[in-house]
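Tutorial sheet, problem 5. The three components below are modelled jointly, 976 residues in total.
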Amino acid sequence: MRYFLYSIPVLAVMPWLLQDFYLSLLLTCLMYAGLAVSWSMFCGATNYLSLATAAFFGIGAYVTARGFETLGYFPAVLFGGIAAGVFAALVGAAVLHLRGAYFAVITFGLGELVRHAITYYEKTWMHTVGRIITEAPESATVYFTVLALTLAAVGAAILVRDSRLGLALRGIGQDEGRAQTLGVNTRAAKIAAFALSAFFAGALGAAMAVRWTYIDPPTVFNPFIGFQTVLIAMVGGAHTIVGPLVSSAVFSVLTEFLRLQFPYAFLIVLGTLLIVLVLYLPGGFASLFQRRKPDAP
Amino acid sequence: MARIVSAILGVLALVAGLPALAQDTVKIGYAISRTGPFAAGAQISQEPNYILWAEQVNARGGLSVQGKKRKVELIGFDDRSEVETAVRTYEKLMGSDKVDLILPPWGTGMNFAVMPLMQKYGYPMLAPTATGRKLLGMKNPYFFALLQQPDSMMIALAEFMKARRVETAAVIHVDELFGIEQMAALETALKEKGIRIVEKKSYPIGVKDLQPVLNDIKSKNPDAFISLSYPPDTFLVTGQAREVGFNPKLFYAAVGSAFPVYRDKMGPAAEGVMGLGSWNPKMSKEAKAYFDAHVARWKKEPDRWASAHAWAGLQILEQAVEKVGLDRKKLRDAIAGGEFTTVLGKVRFKNGENVATPGVVSQWQSGEFEIVWPPDRATGPAMFPKPSFR
Amino acid sequence: MTFWIELLVGGLITGGIYAVVAMGLNLQYGLMRVMNISHGEFLMVGAYLTWLAHTVLGMSPLVSLPFVMLALFALGLAVYWVCFRRIARTAPSAEVVEARSLLVGFGLMFLVQNAAYLMWGADLRGYSYLAEPLQVGGMRFSANRLVVFAFAITASVALLALLRWTLVGKAVRAMMQSPTGAQLLGIDTRVLHPAVFGLGLAFAGAAGALLSMVYEISPSMGEPYTVTALIVITLGGLGSAAGCLVGGLLLGLIEAFGMHFTSPSLKMLLSYGVLILVLLARPKGLFSR
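Model answer (structure tokens):
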């Protein structure tokens, strides 16, 4: 964790050092770091496979779309996170008893459900879909916001891990029935963690959306953002915090490098690397660090 | 941890150290969808034209920059159909690589997203696949839309319908900005011409079955059926109209009907279908030359809507560079103020909108998407009423 | 009256298409817990092979169907050998198999899609085959949709019969209930696993071949079909052949009637709404055991 603390001042001065492109690359990196860490916060510990990240991200982004003009940027980010968190709590109360693929599919379905509900609402009552953001904030402002959110997500993940809630979540991951018998209110624990992880995804969506000028449901409810988050977290090692962080950096930079170097075939290379990685480093990047600390969770 | 950090830094250094480019070429950068859901549209209407154009220009000795010939070097990246990736790529092209010129990405949403960058770095952009009043409402001085806007297309359709005494129409549209803007334009145009809309339905993107809707509409027996749809739905709606035996006098399907694959996939059912087109090789000698060059290079026909607009955009860029060189401010002014001869005929911009290319109605007739309206641009007479589906 | 029957049959036909799309994934996930997210990509490969055979060799898609299935079966064996064998061998639990196979599936998705772009370009492709409408007792349906529907019913029934009454079926069911137990009984999972995986891909290929007659195709067509497949099999209950068919048909009917009674704009809301309701009432799908 020392490295984590050292990195903060370094990351904070980047807007003055980097060209737009490298700052954007770093921004993407941070966004996925925040998404992956907040995803692992709940899913890594409990062994749930949630595909709802795209839904949370999209809800946040849509709060920006609707509220940016009236609320301003920072309140929109905050409300975006809260809206996603509330949504997750409501939905979580209904679906968190499902497991495995059933949970994965239903969380994916929720994203689509929200997307189509928003489209229908906008079309029927607003007679348009999508919003335009004029006067978008400076890219440095977006960068600092995303940086702050990502750091907050990491901080929250550490706090959760070391708290009773974290213990409860890990207990659920190992054997939910046993955790229940031991007196853990598993339902409350799951809903709380699910909502917390959704808060960060929603806030990140709200923060990023201003970069795209035109915000409509297909852009912000892009299922690929959710898939990529799961991918990054799992390749990193979802039961840790450092794994997803490393993995998001490696993935963002590697994908960008391959995309620019092999403009036609980079996905073949990426796909192959991914398969090799899963087969020969099944514990994720996190297992590279854990050799030294075999007793780490 | 330190090992990994240094590895990342190493890769970053590699990203930064892209091969140095020869100095005397004109570097033209763009991001476009080669993978993902936008790839089909981008690879039908847009990127093949960029490459073909660059090859032709270089075969002629290069791009004439105020009389001096310089070779063109295209720098094209895949944006993965992701808005954020497209934004980042243009930041690289404009901010880091400082390319001489840029070409636009594919699609309305992508063009929206790049707009602030165009203004920030001062790169003019001629967009062949972006349409909508909202885009032009941004009043971005560097943005030029080549396609006809929804109102001009829908007015042309309404005029044609009025001329053929069509009285009633049923309309379906896709729940996207495109469908909603076209629908609004169509409603205004039809109202003005006194044509009644007897049924109006919308559907979400990605639908796999519209038969129930078509059955409902068939029972209302409208003179005209207008589908303001995207490619997958355009195909679907044609196939299923044939399936349920729905044979209105006029059958219009918006995006995708101009694709050659529409004719190939629909077979005899394409005959007489009208749609959103803009040109065909019979229009002029220049159009025929472009068509032939495209077929020779890519072994496939260009689509009859946006492809020629992409080509026209490249021609305009070429003519403007010849006149004022690579000073982008001057280039913008030259494009905004000039009139250009292109494959589409004369093109002229007013507030970023191409006001010289009129809205047209096209119709598939024995394998060609004939322009049938307005009369002064028509390449053939309209087949009306449309023959029943075979 | 004809109108209602037409609506009903139309919904069933669309549902049949959904069932065909889901069949292969149902085998792989239901029987082996291999969450093959690249299912749609292999469906796309099947569609392209059929399209190639039709446009280049002039082969009828119905003739090339068995060849496409065979080719994808072989491809499935190879993919299993390279990617999934190691996972099945090293993973400590079914949950881990699920997670790792999901990641490998992402890799395959990138790989196969990009390979298709390189080979065939990103354009939409399509051909016209059996698109003529057939008149059945006052109702009209295009022949190719009816063919897909017939295949869905036949294949589902055949699969059901295979699982219920043959020795292989018994082995597969034993494997589902307890992999270790099955091995103790002398069932060779080293043969059965690749075979089931290959069969899953063969069905994906068949679905692609059939769909290429009805819809246009492109290298990015796969993802929406993967999603459809996942919804259908969770609706029906993972691993249940009957559930897969019923789930697909139910989804088709909901869409057809929903579209008629409400608005097509609500179609997606209805389908996902029903999925969520079903899973709330029956957390393991309609045909859970």
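Marking note: Residues 16-22 of chain B have pLDDT under 50 and may be disordered. Full credit if you identified this.
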